[in-house]
Specification:
- The chain is of the alpha/beta class and 320 residues long.
- Among the domains are: 101 residues, 2-Layer Sandwich (HIT family, subunit A), CATH 3.30.428; 109 residues, Oxidized Rhodanese, domain 1 (3-Layer(aba) Sandwich).
- It has 12 helices and 10 strands.
- The protein has a 5-stranded antiparallel beta sheet with strand order 1-2-3-5-4.
- The longest helix is centred in the middle third of the chain and has 23 residues.
- It is elongated.
- It binds adenosine monophosphate.
- The site of adenosine monophosphate (AMP) has 14 residues, from loops.
Length: 320
């Protein structure tokens, strides 16, 4: 039988954002999240659905719920509330025939009454049912194709505010560099970050930074402005492309935050990256949807200022 997408993720043939893994279970971020937290908890053994569980699987299913509880705590949704659901077969809308449990949370999820309401509605005509089935199949195919495609598109195209950084503004954000300091050649570690801010604070008055942290500010920047930021001082550089592309090549010191991973990385960032750190983000270039998505999340957590290098990897590899 052809392996399902989840088997291929378990075998590491397809990338996914893994939130938890042990010998029996893997938990990954859903590629098309229905809530701010949407994780799929997947038993590794090939079981098609709840309907094909054996009695001996009781422990495994119990473990799934323990993992759900652990992840809910990790994402800080344990107190606010969350939902664990599994779809079984066609009427429930199961699209991947490998048992999995959706952990949803991070916002009010509403009552689970839509299915019940539908079941009391008058029966649809055969034509409507067939049409619905065709549309569902088409959507299923599109979802699968998109999931398998390395250039997969986001499910909902969001319009981002695109403001370019005016050249005259750049000095507001660039901290002066001590003459002997090497130009931010390494990804700033926590220790380096505190050293850098100490160095800045000890500059003579005329060299003191005019840098004003402005959380929530997202600006698009050119190649020249990006290079100026790289040369100027502490920054946190994010490559918002997929893991495969990042592995093939990336700008030195960049960390990889692919699209929807941004939320998952926030707890790490909160521990190690000061809120006023200059954040630089790039993806492939052009529309910069992935970069804007990451920027949007970081903005919600009061990070900033944030700069998106619109030329992205495509321009960087030609200009450097
Ligand atoms: P279900 O409809 O209950 O079978 O759930 C299948 C889930 O798998 C959907 O929510 C999809 O968005 C999700 N999904 C499909 N492909 C992937 C993938 N490559 N990575 C992560 N989630 C996926």
């Amino acid at each position: 039988m052809t392996p399902t997408i989840f088997e291929r993720i378990i075998q590491r043939e397809i990338p996914a954002t893994i939130e938890y893994e042990d010998d029996d279970v893997i938990a990954i971020r859903d590629i098309a999240p229905s809530a701010p937290v949407h994780v799929l908890i997947i038993p590794k053994r090939v079981i098609t659905s709840v309907d094909t569980l054996d009695d001996a699987d009781a422990e495994l299913v119990g473990k799934v719920f323990i993992v759900a509880r652990t992840l809910a705590r990790k994402f800080g949704i344990d107190a606010s509330g969350y939902r664990v659901v599994t779809n079984t077969n066609a009427d429930a809308g199961q699209t991947v025939p490998h048992i999995h449990f959706h952990l949803l949370g991070g916002q009010p999820l509403g009552r689970m009454n839509s299915g019940a309401e539908r079941s009391h509605a008058p029966a649809r005509s055969g034509v409507l049912r067939d049409a619905g089935l065709i549309v569902a199949c088409a959507i299923g195919l599109a979802i699968t194709f998109n999931a398998l495609n390395t250039k997969s598109i986001p499910w909902i195209k969001k319009e981002y505010e695109r403001i370019t950084l005016d050249s005259s503004e750049i000095t507001t954000y660039i901290a002066p560099v001590a003459p002997t300091a090497s130009p931010a050649a390494e990804q700033p570690t926590q220790q380096q970050q505190s050293t850098a801010s100490t160095a800045t604070a000890s500059q003579p008055a005329k060299e003191q930074s005019t840098f004003v942290p402005t959380p929530g500010v997202v600006r698009e920047i050119t190649h020249a402005q990006f290079k100026a930021f790289l040369a100027s001082g502490p920054y946190y550089l994010i490559d918002a492309r997929g893991a495969e592309k990042y592995a093939e090549g990336h700008i030195a010191n960049a960390v990889n935050f692919y699209g929807g991973e941004a939320e998952a990385r926030i707890p790490d960032m909160l521990q190690s990256v000061p809120k006023d750190r200059v954040i630089l983000i790039y993806c492939d270039g052009g529309e910069c949807e992935l970069s804007h998505h990451v920027a949007d999340v970081l903005k919600r957590f009061a990070y900033g200022p944030i700069f998106i290098y619109t030329g992205g990897w495509a321009e960087w590899t030609t200009k450097k």
